[in-house]
Write a structure and sequence with these properties.
Blueprint: H1 11-23, H2 29-36, H3 41-69, H4 72-92, H5 96-119, H6 129-154, H7 161-176, H8 199-225, H9 231-259, H10 261-280, H11 284-309, H12 315-349, H13 354-391
Helix pairs in contact: 1-5, 1-6, 1-7, 2-3, 3-5, 3-12, 4-5, 4-7, 5-12, 6-9, 6-11, 8-10, 8-11, 8-12, 8-13, 9-10, 9-11, 10-11, 10-13, 12-13
Length: 392
């Protein structure tokens, strides 16, 4: 049977390209929206949020589409082509309301492509699912990590440079998908029941991305206003988070195979939450070590989520599970970003100092991760007890 690494072209390359086509846009959002909605800071935030909203909204339908079309490759190819077309439409610009509508649809299509590529990945050794999906998880995070620097380079060609480049990247993905040997849904594929979705992994990834959403803008402000980091120091801190995230996903996937995804996720969530709480009171000297640990823990959570969502032999269920997992991540990012902005505005209106606001947000992120870890342990213990009772 074809393995992930035996696909031609490598499936990880297609996953990387699809993610990159979207993350290339991030550094160009401000100048792009400044061109079409001058003077409106909220338009920048709305553009980013609407892409996440589209990803969340399409999640319930991806598995159904795969089941209806009976072809993973056809669904992924069509979605990628439409994604590229919509990116081209965004590059043309126009009325802000139209751009927002295109952005919602583009976010939905991009998640569809990624979910199908992950869910229909050719099956290999079922005892090495974590290792196999660790490679794909690393490809996702590499696309996230390289999106900002490559998008910045593309800005040299104008405010639409990153969008046009993203469109060509996604079009290339669409053209290569038919050669990736994706698994196809069975002709007997049935509707995916809600109970079959990976609810526990969805909790892990939601919590992990919630913390990232709380962190993104807050840390940028905290680094400059409170830690007095230079631009180079801030860049080093972000790199200290992203590099281990990319490098640690594969080994974390192998650990999930060996010790079980719930164990790895619980341990990682506990470490993740503790580090967020510690970051609240960390000075300059402790920022880099904290960011390194956060990157490793985040990678382990993501790898465990991928592994636990890919255990079914039913392709339709795997696609639906990956769609739900990606949707949970998008929702976490959306809620985290919005919550940080709202909380910061409210606290500042009452005269709170910047450092107090930032530290509170970091602590909230930490408590959320610890709560997810406790919830996971509780669920696992309850299931184990129920299993013993049934056997007895």
């Amino acid at each position: 049977m074809t393995t992930l690494t035996g696909s031609r072209p490598p499936l990880a390359l297609l996953v990387f390209g699809s993610v990159l086509s979207s993350t290339l846009l991030i550094p160009g959002l401000r100048p792009y929206m400044a061109h079409w909605a001058p003077g409106s800071e909220s338009a920048v935030h709305a553009f980013l949020a609407l892409g996440l909203l589209g990803a969340v909204a399409v999640s319930p339908f991806v598995g159904k589409l795969a089941r209806t079309l009976r072809s993973s490759a056809r669904l992924a190819t069509v979605a990628a082509m439409l994604d590229a077309v919509l990116l081209g439409g965004l590059a043309l610009g126009g009325d802000v309301r139209l751009l927002f509508a295109l952005r919602i649809a583009q976010g939905a299509l991009n998640l569809t492509v990624l979910s199908v590529l992950l869910g229909a990945a050719p099956a290999g050794d079922r005892n090495r699912v974590g290792s196999q999906y660790g490679l794909l998880g690393a490809a996702i995070m590499l696309g996230v990590a390289l999106g900002a620097p490559l998008g910045t380079v593309c800005l040299r060609f104008g405010v639409t440079g990153p969008i046009v480049t993203g469109a060509f990247v996604e079009l290339s993905v669409a053209l290569l998908i038919p050669y990736a040997k994706l698994e196809e849904p069975s002709r007997l594929a049935r509707t995916v029941p809600l109970a079959a979705l990976p609810w526990l992994p969805m909790l892990w990834v939601f919590a992990e991305r919630l913390a990232v959403g709380l962190f993104v803008v807050t840390f940028a402000l905290h680094a400059k206003e409170c830690l007095m980091l230079t631009d180079a120091g801030y860049g080093a801190a972000i790199s200290a988070f992203m590099v281990p995230f990319v490098l640690a996903v594969y080994p974390a996937g192998r650990l999930s195979d060996r010790f079980g995804a719930p164990f790895v996720a619980s341990l990682a969530l506990g470490l993740y939450g503790s580090c967020w709480i510690a970051l609240a009171g960390a000075g300059q000297t402790l920022v880099l070590p904290m960011m390194l640990l956060l990157g490793v823990a985040s990678a382990a959570i993501f790898a465990a989520g991928l592994r636990e969502s890919a255990t079914s032999r039913d392709v339709t269920l795997r696609i639906a599970s990956m769609s739900a997992l990606n949707s949970a991540g998008s929702l976490g990012m959306l809620v985290g970003t919005a919550s940080a902005g709202i909380l910061s505005a409210v606290l500042r209106s009452y005269g709170a100092e910047s450092d107090a606001v930032h530290e509170l947000i970091f602590r909230i992120a930490g408590v959320a991760e610890l709560a997810a870890a406790f919830g996971t342990i509780t669920v696992v213990l309850v299931l184990q007890r129920a299993t013993r009772l049934v056997r007895s």
